[in-house]
Amino acid sequence: MTPHLQGIGMTSLRTRERMMNRLAEQGITNQKVLEVMRDTPRHIFMDEALSSRAYEDTALPIGYNQTISQPYIVAKMTELLLASGSLSKVLEIGTGCGYQTAVLAQVVDHVYSIERILPLQKKAKDYLWDLKIKNISYLYGDGSLGWPEYAPFDGILVTAAPPEIPEILLQQMAVNGVMVIPVGKNGDKQTLQRVTRTEMGYKVEELEPVTFVPFLAGKE
Fold first, then answer.
1. What are the average pLDDT values for consecutive 10-residue runs of the chain, which has 220 residues?
2. What DSSP character marks residue 44?
3. Taking the alpha carbons of 129, 131, 137, 142 in that order, is the dihedral positive or negative?
4. Which CATH superfamily is domain 60-210 in?
5. Catalytic, out of 12, 69, 84, 137
6. Which ranges constitute the DSSP H helices of the chain?
7. Is 69 a catalytic residue?
8. Which of 12, 139, 171, 192 has its Cα between 20 and 30 A from that of 26?
């Protein structure tokens, strides 16, 4: 790993280990998720001016009115997705800067990631290429449509909050598949929800309050 990827000072491995220990104290128990969070350099996914804050437990701006989620939320959503076992095909709605994508790609077989803002997607691809993470397919498009060509997915992770769970994403879940999604109107109460598809229908669990950017259709 190059010095930039390895980090120094506030971006060093020691700082990432402190973050991992904090995540464990916050209730993250999946050891693989904790190790991936420790080993993935979050600081490279944001502007250099903010890199010293990369391992604080806070969301940070990445431009285009988007944010990189706080480490706890990234870890929690990943852990929730993996709770029912290993996953082969995971759909991510909202590549953003690519950090959540990087974490996901190290714990599942393949990630299909959709981003509606082209400059963000281009940056994310560069970051992930630098990390030599290659089990990702990218789509510049409207996440509200999902990615029907590769459906059904045994995992779906959504990184923006729609007012209700999109029906089209439910349809693209495999039986026994899991979706983790924040739900709620922008400015109102949002909750993190986990949806499991069964032979009989869908089981929805409301888990904890969260704050995400709004889920928008279309692309820019």
1. 54 84 96 95 87 86 88 96 93 96 97 96 95 96 95 96 95 97 85 96 94 84
2. G
3. negative
4. Vaccinia Virus protein VP39 (3.40.50.150)
5. 69
6. 3-6, 13-25, 31-39, 71-82, 99-105, 118-130, 167-171
7. yes
8. 12
